[in-house]
Amino acid sequence: MKTLLLYNIKAGRGKAHDNIGKVADIFRSAGYDTRSEAIDFAKNPFDGYEDVQMVVVAGGDGTLNYVVNRMKERKLDIALGIIPSGTANDFAGAVGMSRNPLKAARQIVGGCERRLDCGCVNGLYFVNIFSFGLFTTTSQRTPDERKRKWGKLAYIFEGIRELRSLRPLPLHVCHDGGQTDMDALMVLVFNGETAGGFRLARTADVRDGLFDGLILERRNLFLSCVSMVRYLLGGHPSSVHHFRSQHISIATSVENVLTDVDGQRGAEFPLDISCVAGSLRVICPVAER
């Protein structure tokens, strides 16, 4: 099988780069015709590789998002393997992949193909989560220099700054269960199950053709934060609204609202969000899925 092994040299502070040789050896030993390439985010990684039968991505959710969108651009329907090498690796966790790159490679070699869902917002695809509002775009706002200097602390500092300029968003939300108007602080649309390792989408399944949506309605700042903590601890606060839907549309009167897809810059309002059932051919571990 012709296999393209793509890796992000910066993901996980070099985790993918450090292991790529051993990962490639595992595939070659199993009979895969494997070519490994570092991802150049300035071009489509499938240029010159349109005949590959499987792509294996070593990186985090953002790297996976980039590769999936480039696949869709080329209208490629090929098998997809995931080597978790980022920080959170949320979608890989939903699939059941080991966080150890070599074990993940062996899971792919001995795995089976499953048709899994993918999200699409205004033509932009996402594998795990689409979001906007409180803390959801902190990664985008944090300068690269601070990330290199402070690591994860840079996100905390930027998050504190974001709290000081917090403003609610007046939203009109339509989904399969109806429509509503509310002032919201945060909106999360899950295809996967977790965000940053936190299991927020309690009923999510990447094979059910549905999103899990969460909206944090505005109260005062303190009560809103308390409500989110209660939800994280398993509670059901009234200001956290949950719904399941195949299609969602969201509009706001506020301009220049940043959104996020899998940790990358997302789409602009108004938003048209659809769950594309079975859109991805993902190689999953046999025991877990």
Explained architecture:
With 289 residues, this protein is an alpha+beta fold. 27% of the residues lie in helices and 36% in strands. The protein is built from eight helices and 17 strands. It has a 15-stranded mixed β-sheet that branches. It has a two-stranded antiparallel sheet with strand order 10-11. β1, α1 and β2 form a beta-alpha-beta unit. α1 packs parallel to α4. It is globular. It starts with a strand and ends in a 5-residue tail after the last strand. 44% of the residues are buried.
Q: Mind sketching the topology for me?
A:
Elements: E1 2-7, H1 15-29, E2 33-38, E3 54-59, H2 61-73, E4 79-84, H3 90-95, H4 101-109, E5 112-121, E6 124-126, E7 129-133, H5 138-141, H6 144-150, H7 153-164, E8 169-175, E9 178-190, E10 194-195, E11 198-199, E12 211-217, H8 221-232, E13 240-245, E14 247-252, E15 259-261, E16 264-265, E17 271-284
Helix pairs in contact: 1-4
Could you give a short description of this structure?
With 289 residues, this protein is of the alpha+beta class.
Order of helices and strands: EHEEHEHHEEEHHHEEEEEHEEEEE
> Kindly state the mean pLDDT as a whole number?
88
Q: Write down the overall geometry.
A: globular
Number of strands: 17
Distance between the termini: 22 Å
Portion of residues in beta strands equals: 35-45%
Main beta sheet: 15 strands, mixed
| DSSP summary: helix tally | 8
- Compute the CA-based radius of gyration: 19 Å
- Structural classification: alpha+beta
Low-pLDDT windows of residues: none
State the helicity in percent bands: 25-40%
